Amino acid sequence: MTFAIRKFACGAGALFGLCGASLALAAPAQYTVDPEHTYPSFEASHMGISIWRGKFDRTTGTATLDDAAASGVIDVRVDLKSVDFGHAKLNEFMVGPQFFDTEKFPEAHYRGTLAGFVNGAPTRVDGTLTLHGVTQPLPLTVNLFKCVPHPMLKRQLCGADAVATFQRDQFGLDAGKSYGFSMDVTLRIQVEALKND
After folding, report:
1. Residue 40 burial by CB count (10 A; 0-12/13-18/19+): exposed, middle or buried?
2. Which fold has domain 7-15+32-195?
């Protein structure tokens, strides 16, 4: 997920400040997800006795943000073959036909609209997740949002931390359900993005 800010338009620390008519006329800004600093992760119960955690190592995406209108959209794709539990055999199971079935469904796709702006920053994303060939609504809660000038690239860098929960069997991922496994999944997203030139 990516977001934009024009920090210098109103001085240091003025996040999303609308400081004059010229800013209101500015075009929406385009951003690209930094795959080296973006890692969706997840948590799920293992037989109700422990919580297993994993992450995805390859994510791509874009975002558009209109500061003046307090609006924006995000579009993110996750390579499901990059799943990593820190456990080789479990990784192999997850990409196989009994779970993600990445030969048929190689990626997850999230597209959403930034919403609930407070002091110029979004507090949620209203969007949909497509996973395992199924598309379902999935709102994200944005717990942290901040933008700063990148010290080396001299471009605006934005970051966010977001969370959501869903039932994996709604996406056809019901392995273990017959044994009483919980279908609850917590999704956590750390994301950074750079403003396009």
Report:
1. buried
2. Lipocalin (2.40.128)
Tokens of 3: 């977001």
User: Which amino acid does the sequence have at 173?
Assistant: L
25 phi, psi to nearest 5 deg: -90, -5
Is pLDDT of 108 > 70? yes
Q: Report the C-alpha gap between 130 and 71 in whole angstroms.
A: 22
Cα distance between residue 193 and residue 140, in whole Å = 17
* C-beta of residue 140 within 8 angstroms of C-beta of residue 148: no
- Residue 191 and residue 1 in contact, taking contact as beta carbons nearer than 8 Å: yes
Q: Spell out where the chain has E strands.
A: 29-33, 39-46, 50-56, 59-66, 71-79, 83-84, 107-115, 124-131, 134-137, 140-149, 156-167, 184-195
Provide the 3-class DSSP secondary structure of residue 172. Answer: coil
pLDDT band of residue 26 (cuts 50, 70, 90) is low
Alpha helices (runs of H) in the chain, residue ranges in sequence order:
21-24, 88-95
Alpha carbons 31 and 63: distance in angstroms, whole number: 5
